[in-house]
Recover the amino acids of this structure.
């Protein structure tokens, strides 16, 4: 995504629901794009809602931050954005 919020691209490919992304840039700037940083998001890819981190601009897989058996996020009805 550029600094104006345009040209967004999906960062995850898991068939689970990955929602509510929050991006913390660590700008390795190429043109007007910030290509590195950490993306935090909520996902039900493990069977319940947990929080994951993804280092953008790398080939790294998302890292699961929470591991509680219950949901570790807000209520599902409040989710709107996609990763």
């Amino acid at each position: 995504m550029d600094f104006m919020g345009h040209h967004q691209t999906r960062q995850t490919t898991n068939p689970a629901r990955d929602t509510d992304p929050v991006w913390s840039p660590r700008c390795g700037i190429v043109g007007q794009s910030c290509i590195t940083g950490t993306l935090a998001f909520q996902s039900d890819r493990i069977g319940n809602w947990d929080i994951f981190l993804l280092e953008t601009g790398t080939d790294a897989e998302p890292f699961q931050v929470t591991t509680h058996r219950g949901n570790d996020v807000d209520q599902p009805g409040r989710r709107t954005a996609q990763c």
